[in-house]
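Moderator note: this is an archived Q&A kept for reference. The question asked for a predicted structure of one protein chain; the sequence and the answer are reproduced below.
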Amino acid sequence: MFMNKSVILFVFCLMLLFPACSVPHVDPTPTATEIPEPTETPIPQPTPTIPPSAARVNGLYIAIEDVDGKKAQLRDAYEQLGEDIPDDGLLREEALNDLIDETLFLSAAQMRGAAPDAVDLDTQTQALCISLGSCDAVKEWQSKNHYSEDSFRRALERELAVANMREIIFEQLKDIEQIHVYRIWSSRRSDLDEVLSRLNMGISFTEMARNYDETTGGDMSWFPRGVLFSKEVEDKIFALNAGEHSDIMEIDGVYNLFYVAEKQTGRSMDTQVAQLAQRKALSDWLEEQRNQADIEIL
């Protein structure tokens, strides 16, 4: 059988255009087939569901449920204290501000590696079950205090973070400078002018202080900055060296002379002074954090 001319021409053209399509030379030596290395398929991690939120602090969300719960707790507190309850807008603002402060502690704890984990939360919850007698009792307590299980866990996380950060902040107070101060005061400047004259004659400050105050002898004991006086007054007192007294200083209509008996760093504080210093340290820390934080009201 003879092939059609057009078919022969077509095949001839293909051979000219695609010479590689001709029968290839086959190497009799077999070639080893490379087996591809197995690759690990990444397992997608679940994205946590963000609850309906009232604010965001450094990327951490404050749930509307938590604000509503805090409002109810504040309302209960006002009622128990017998105080007038603020209107709903002011109550919400107070609740949100409290939660922002708590979330600032949580954010700082996370950055320092001091934030509680799931095990910590479970441990604390179990301890509460033991303390109240049963986990059912804990659920009753949660309901009474306006918590759901989720909002309670978030509140517990914030509370533990606050406790951890408080320890870190208070640890820094161990290295704070303290001064031991004596004081002579009077409502009349003429009295202190006379005291200054006697001091210039070489009479002991502490001896004269005992004459002016027989109860305390003018001894103000030890204290750090931020506890008793304004910054302006503190700067003048702390600028004194041990054994020096101040000039006459008028504070709220009262004339004062201060004498620094001793200065020391790392000294343990008296209980009441420590509480005042801790409160000041927390207040200063929160103010600094608020100024630096990324806070968005949603």
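Archived answer notes: Residues 105 and 163 are 9 Å apart (CA to CA).
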